[in-house]
Amino acid sequence: TPRVFSGIQPSGGLTLGNYLGAMKRFVDMQDAGSHETVYCMVDQHAITAKFLEPATLAANTRELCAGFIAAGIDPAKSILFNQSQVAEHAQLAWIFNCVARMGWMQRMTQWKDKAGKNSQNASLGLFAYPALMAADILVYHATHVPVGEDQKQHLELTRDIAIKFNHDYGVDFFPITEPVIEGAATRVMSFRDGTKKMSKSDPSDASRINLTDDADAIAKKIRKAKTDPEALPSEKDGLEDRPEARNLVNIYAGLSEQTVAQVLAEVGGKQFSEFKPMLADLAVAKLAPISTEMARLMQHQDEIDKILAHGANQAREIAAPILKKTYEIVGMVGA
Ligand code: TYM
């Protein structure tokens, strides 16, 4: 069976963007049953950007695990674990550090954004981040990677690394991965500025829905979301140049599992005063149970740690032989 891999950073807080762009898709792929699904909390990526207190990293990882399960990931159906427990990721990443070129990394827009002007002060890990990400995927020979729009460039680099490795060593070993960037909400935008991505690092809490928000907070943030004064269009073209309107329609489509065209057929002509309460009801119905379940699971830290350890064992069984074979290909001597 083909294999799916994806990861989320335990950098603290999950947003509606993470849910619609990633987690909900992970659940769909798990439940489709057509792929083996491997989902990872990438704690080694989470320390690349800034110093994280050890207790914070640990708490974030457990909270993210609770989020995965509350959103519908079933540890009996998917492999669920944190990256650092499976050393093969970092081991393969070293090989990929020697395959990837400096120029490739320098072109990454996420590197440029996160390192900013003072890139001399960024960590070496932040620069090498995409090579570790390629290793996350390729150490399982995963062929499909569900992600939001913002990870597209990293997945292209993953393909480049696989192609160059295969070429340099004259093998057909690593698969050329397909990004799966699908659905109506692959790029959920801020509620305060429809041209900015919804992000857990935005200083304004009103700009996003957190997966830990309760029903009141969810409804209030939607009520206050920035909009324009026009009624909703009945066709997709009518959303051009209306980023805030488009974002709310995309979110409605994502949560209701419809296309944008289907949503507009239903809500076209309505004012936001009418559409926002519809969206708020839908969001509360879909998201509030997740936040309740997350809170419940967080009371059971031992169980979370057991799930992660079990998932790590399953992951290692797949990754270890692939790493061993990689070492053989590269010429690293061992028994
Ligand atoms: P991260 O942790 O920033 O985000 C996790 C996932 O959520 C998606 N996402 C969004 N989707 C739609 N709208 C948004 N506003 C939004 N914000 C976030 C992201 O696209 C992502 O799918 N580099 C990755 C983690 C990673 C990974 C991997 C992913 C490490 N190794 C291997 C796939 C495969 C990251 O930083 O995602």
TrEMBL record:
PANTHER family registered for this protein in UniProt: TRYPTOPHAN--TRNA LIGASE, MITOCHONDRIAL
Protein name: Tryptophan--tRNA ligase
Functional description taken from the UniProt entry: Catalyzes the attachment of tryptophan to tRNA(Trp).
GO molecular function annotation: ATP binding; tryptophan-tRNA ligase activity
Catalytic reactions on record: tRNA(Trp) + L-tryptophan + ATP = L-tryptophyl-tRNA(Trp) + AMP + diphosphate + H(+)
List of residues binding ATP: 9-11, 17-18, 148-150, 188, 197-201
GO biological process, one term: tryptophanyl-tRNA aminoacylation
Assembly information from the UniProt record: Homodimer.
Residues engaged in binding L-tryptophan: 136
Keywords, in A-Z order: Aminoacyl-tRNA synthetase, ATP-binding, Cytoplasm, Ligase, Nucleotide-binding, Protein biosynthesis
Gene3D superfamilies from the UniProt entry: HUPs, Tyrosyl-Transfer RNA Synthetase
Motif range ('KMSKS' region): 197-201
Lineage of origin: Bacteria, Pseudomonadati, Pseudomonadota, Alphaproteobacteria, Rhodobacterales
Matches recorded under InterPro entries: aa-tRNA-synth_I_CS (IPR001412), aa-tRNA-synth_Ic (IPR002305), Rossmann-like_a/b/a_fold (IPR014729), Trp-tRNA-ligase (IPR002306), Trp-tRNA-ligase_bac-type (IPR024109), Trp-tRNA_synthetase (IPR050203)
Enzyme class, first EC level, given as a word: ligase
Keyword Nucleotide-binding: yes
Entry coiled-coil feature ranges: none
Pfam families noted in UniProt: tRNA-synt_1b
Family from the record: Belongs to the class-I aminoacyl-tRNA synthetase family.
Cellular localization per UniProt: Cytoplasm
EC number assigned by the record: 6.1.1.2
A GO cellular component annotation in the UniProt record: cytosol
Motif 'HIGH' region: chain residues: 10-18
Location (main, coarse): cytoplasm
